[in-house]
């Protein structure tokens, strides 16, 4: 299992979790981004999903993934 971190564009951590692969982590991140946008549209400028090594897995701008 690899550890993943989802942050907002300003670096605030929304969530961290373990997933079997990047695809699974990205699916979970999409759900989290959708929930965050629904509850905090002002904070929905951008999101970044990284793995435990700091590598980019996915990025989202202000348009829904």
Automatic annotation (TrEMBL):
Residues 32-65 are annotated as: Disordered. It comes from the Bacteria. This is YD repeat-containing protein.
